[in-house]
Task: structure prediction
Amino acid sequence: MGKTPKSSVSNRRRFLKTTGASVAALTLAGCASNDSGGSSDGDSGGDSGGDSGGSDSSQGTATSTNSVEEVVIGSNHPLSGGLAATGVGMSNAIKLAAQRKNEEGGIQSLDGAQVKVIEGDNQGKQELGGQVSEELLNEGADVLTGCYSSPVTTAATQVAERAGVPFVISIAAADNILKDRGFNYVYRPQPPARRMASDYADLVPTVIRDNGGTVDTAGLFYINNSYGQAIRDALREFLPQQNVEIVEETAIEFGASNANTQVSKLRSADPDTIIATTYVGGGVLLSQALQDQSYRPPHLTACASATFTDDRAVRDIGEFANGVMDNNYALNPTIDKTAEVREQFSANYDQNFSASVGMAYTAAEVIIQAIEDAGSADPDDINNALKQLRYEDHISAMGTIEFNDIGENKNALAPINQVQDLSVKVVYPDEYAEASPQV
Result:
């Protein structure tokens, strides 16, 4: 059943302790971009089960017969700071996935072992990403998930990889989190930046044109960090292939108080569409500045923007948000499970179950399924199960989740959502649509 040898557990813990002093330097290496994004609004994104039988309390609760009683997921998200509303929602989604599994009887292949979630607060700060991963591992996490922002995730995954512990990304878009890093323990169920930009270019202009609109020119409005830059770079490549010319690009910094200068530049260029790539706060600032300047392009759209998939943010923006199209993470509205999970989340946490929060829920279910498939709490066994995973019973609007040789989901998809009557609805592709596009 893939039990963890006592020497392996000891070596793993010794690694974590000896690297503690240098983790800050390690996590900053290769993570030059400063993270963040958004304002005060968020998106809308135990112990080890090892059964060595030893006395190391961080290695899980084991009986005298070495049976595993619980398996621990470490949740590394911003629980305070400017991204906290999203981060708390994502961490709560992970806890809900564990709760639902436990209510069903726990991990059946481990005789009902319970799933436990422990949390760490990275505050949305790049320099804390690796530190929080280390702390969660020292507290007994058998597998990790996080972190919402790309620079934080880049740091956090580095520590997990060095420790030989699986890390399933809840949300983080930058391609370089996985690309060219040679990782063996990191997985991303959702589409990376390049795929999201490709899906935007393939889907959004087509939907607009098929419904009588014109989109020949675009202006980019993006958060100035690795996530926003990655989307920008990919849009530069893919939009011309769909006969869309980028006529203006403008970035907003984390912590900005307004977007007036950026909107003035976009207004002067007067594109057919503005494409927003932001955390929630940045999209709100864009909407405010557009209204202040009495300007709106023929089509206001977004690529991987948390703002326009968050019902609360949409309500805060008001009528101006209606009609915005955003290709992004999406929940599958065509299956009963989505409504069931959404309702249970709202009842438990009194929070909005946005598409990004839903993606974190899916990441947790991926982890839980891998544990079930592994029949083990050993990180290496869970890792091997992730490599062979084919997971269909999820609530995200995409096909079967299975990972390629660098840990990307082969079937990741960023469908089109549209704000209609101040509610976020999936409008394309047709197999996931709950409403028709309005152009």
